[in-house]
From TrEMBL:
It comes from the Eukaryota. InterPro entries: Golgi_membrane_TVP38/TMEM64, VTT_dom. This is Golgi apparatus membrane protein TVP38. It comes from Basidiobolus meristosporus CBS 931.73. It is found in: Golgi apparatus membrane. The keyword Transmembrane helix applies. The chain crosses the membrane at residues 42-61, 73-98, 158-175, 195-215. Keywords: Golgi apparatus, Membrane, Transmembrane, Transmembrane helix. Belongs to the TVP38/TMEM64 family.
Length: 254
């Protein structure tokens, strides 16, 4: 197997290659499950929406997989509806419940995840813009729902920012809708143009995610650095004032 460590583009292509190798067994099962979901009409869409909503709570995984499956079932852009509604409802419920009843769990997350603790500090300092940027960046969606419950941001701001940021699910919906075409392109001797288009789309998507992560991390580190520098300056001033007070007392005694 090719070593893809540190190379997202090669990892993406290898994942598609593995999928194409097992296409004869995996795709029929996906199609059967997809047909079952569509035949149930509203009920099928509701079940898929609820499953996606569950991924808004840690440690439940599967948001990306279920979002891609939604695109596979309903196509693009219709598959965006259950994915968006499910992710939005799940994230909102997790945030509200964690803020009201999960104080201990929130503290546990912030204590054990240094990065998440820094995120909360940065959001409270920078506000809406950094909050929106972090929501678009590839941080764990469900862990962020809990982490954000430990901040002082208003619930209305959480609802607005989360609603705006979930448009990032659209590329996964598109990938799901084109899943069979992707695997076919790797098994049927595709033209260089198709391969280039696939590679370009993957590189662009990964590049945007990496840039958003880098930018948000840079801003978070800057806020933390400024805060620590300020705290150090305050501590230094207090120590200086204490020394001056001791010197004054010594002079008075003399």
């Amino acid at each position: 197997m090719t070593d893809t460590k540190g190379n997202p583009r090669e990892a993406f292509l290898e994942a598609l290659t593995l999928l194409s190798r097992h296409k004869d067994t995996l795709v029929p099962k996906l199609e059967q499950l997809s047909q079952w979901t569509r035949e149930r009409g509203f009920l099928g869409g509701l079940v898929l929406t609820l499953l996606i909503a569950c991924t808004g709570f840690p440690p439940v995984l599967g948001l990306s997989s279920l979002t891609t499956f939604s695109g596979f079932v309903y196509g693009f852009p219709l598959g965006f509806v259950p994915a968006y509604v499910g992710a939005y409802v799940g994230g909102t419920c997790c945030f509200i419940l964690s803020r009201r009843y999960g104080h201990g769990y929130v503290r546990k997350i912030l204590t054990s995840h240094h990065i998440m603790a820094n995120i909360t500090r940065a959001i409270e300092k920078k506000g809406f813009k950094l909050f929106l940027l972090i929501r678009f960046a590839p941080y764990p969606y469900n862990v962020l729902n809990v982490t954000l419950a430990g901040t002082t941001i208003p619930t209305t701001q959480f609802l607005v920012v989360t609603g705006m940021s979930l448009i990032k699910l659209l590329p996964q919906i598109y990938i799901g809708s084109q899943l069979i075409n992707f695997t076919d392109s790797l098994t049927q001797h595709p033209s260089p143009v198709k391969l280039f288009g696939l590679l370009l789309a993957a590189s662009l998507g990964i590049g945007i995610l990496v840039y958003l992560y880098w930018l948000s991390k840079k801003m978070i580190n800057q806020v933390v650095h400024d805060e620590e520098e300020h705290n150090g300056l305050v501590r230094h001033n207090r120590e200086s004032e204490t020394l001056w007070a001791l010197d004054d007392r010594s002079n008075e005694e003399l």
